[in-house]
Specification:
The chain is mainly α. The chain has helices at residues 3-34, 37-72, 74-77, 84-111, 117-141. This is Copper resistance protein D.
C-alpha cells in the first residue's frame, strides 16, 4: 500500500476517533443529563455497544496505519530530540500511547465496576484533549 493511502487511512481514522469523542463530550453527555433515568440507561447501553464495535475497528485502522507510518520514520525516531520534527513525532507517539493507556484503564474500571457516568465523562474529556494534542502535533510536524 502506498504511503499516501496509509496516511489517508490514518487521517480518516483520526477524524472518526476524534469525532466520536467530540460527540460524546459535547452532544451526548449534555443530552443524557436531561433524559429520565430509564431512557438514559437504555440509550447508554445501546450507544455503548455500538460505539465499542465501531471504535474498535477505527482504532485498528488508526493505530495500524500509525505504526506503518512510524516505521517509515524509524531513523528519525532513533534520535527523538535531534530536530523539531523528531521531537513532535516522539511527543505525538507518547500521546497516542497515553490514549491506549486510557482505554486499558477504562476496561479495568468498567469490569471492576469502579467507574460511573461522571467518571466516564471525565475520561472522555481527557481522551479528547489528548487526541486534540495529537492532531496539533501532527499539524505542526508538517508545517515547520
Amino acid at each position: 500500500m502506498s504511503y499516501t493511502a496509509i496516511k489517508t487511512l490514518h487521517l480518516l481514522g483520526a477524524i472518526a476517533f476524534i469525532g466520536t469523542l467530540f460527540f460524546q463530550v459535547f452532544i451526548l453527555a449534555p443530552v443524557m443529563r436531561d433524559l429520565p433515568e430509564g431512557d438514559r440507561s437504555r440509550l447508554a447501553t445501546a450507544l455503548g455497544q455500538r460505539a465499542r464495535r465501531v471504535v474498535h475497528w477505527v482504532a485498528l485502522v488508526l493505530y495500524g496505519a500509525g505504526l506503518t507510518l512510524g516505521w517509515q520514520y524509524r531513523a528519525v525516531l532513533s534520535q527523538p530530540f535531534s530536530s523539531q520534527f523528531s521531537a513532535l513525532l516522539t511527543f505525538k507517539i507518547a500521546l497516542a500511547l497515553l490514549i491506549v493507556a486510557h482505554y486499558v484503564a477504562l476496561i479495568f474500571l468498567r469490569k471492576s465496576g469502579r467507574i460511573g457516568p461522571h467518571g466516564m465523562h471525565l475520561l472522555n474529556i481527557s481522551l479528547l484533549m489528548h487526541a486534540v494534542l495529537v492532531v496539533i502535533c501532527a499539524k505542526a510536524m508538517f508545517t515547520l
